[in-house]
């Protein structure tokens, strides 16, 4: 591989890793401890986790399977593989990290 390809790949992996870190921090430090839902596959996984008392790190990849199937037929396989690996890494990070909640105030800035 030439140097530019290596540099671009490292930059891409770094960006994906940073996004995984930020998503896991948002989930573990704010959304999950305060009982908030998110949108998309993550929101569905949070809802199912609350309903059936199953760890969200197990549900997130399972809920994403239909999207991966659709993606297999519609998007570039390279993007599909990166997305699959990112979801798996996010699941691992949220399973093993133990961040403390940022706040327990769920008023969202309501005035008294």
Helix content: over 70%
How many distinct folded domains? 1
User: Low-confidence runs (pLDDT<50, min 5 residues)?
Assistant: none
Work out the strand percent. under 5%
Averaged pLDDT, please?
90
Q: What can be said about the biggest beta sheet? A: none
What distance separates the N and C termini? Answer: 61 Å
> In total, how many beta strands?
0
**Rounded radius of gyration (Å):** 17 Å
Q: List the secondary-structure elements in sequence, H or E.
A: HHHH
Written account of the structure:
By secondary structure, the chain is mainly alpha-helical. It has one domain. Helix 1 crosses helix 4 and helix 2 runs antiparallel to helix 3. The longest helix has 32 residues. The mean pLDDT is 90.
Any descriptors?
about 110 residues, mainly alpha, 4 helices, about 75% helix
Layout of helices and strands, plus pairs?
Elements: H1 3-34, H2 40-52, H3 56-74, H4 77-96
Helix pairs in contact: 1-4, 2-3, 3-4
């Amino acid at each position: 591989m030439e140097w530019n390809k290596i540099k671009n790949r490292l930059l891409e992996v770094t960006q994906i890793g940073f996004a995984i870190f930020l998503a896991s921090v948002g989930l573990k430090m704010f959304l999950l401890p305060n009982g908030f839902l998110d949108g998309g596959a993550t929101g569905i996984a949070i809802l199912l986790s609350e309903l059936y008392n199953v760890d969200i790190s197990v549900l997130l990849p399972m809920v994403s399977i239909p999207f991966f199937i659709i993606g297999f037929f519609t998007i570039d396989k390279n993007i599909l593989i990166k997305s699959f690996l990112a979801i798996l890494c996010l699941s691992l990070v949220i399973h093993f990290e133990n961040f403390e909640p940022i706040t327990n105030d769920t008023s969202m800035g309501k005035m008294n």
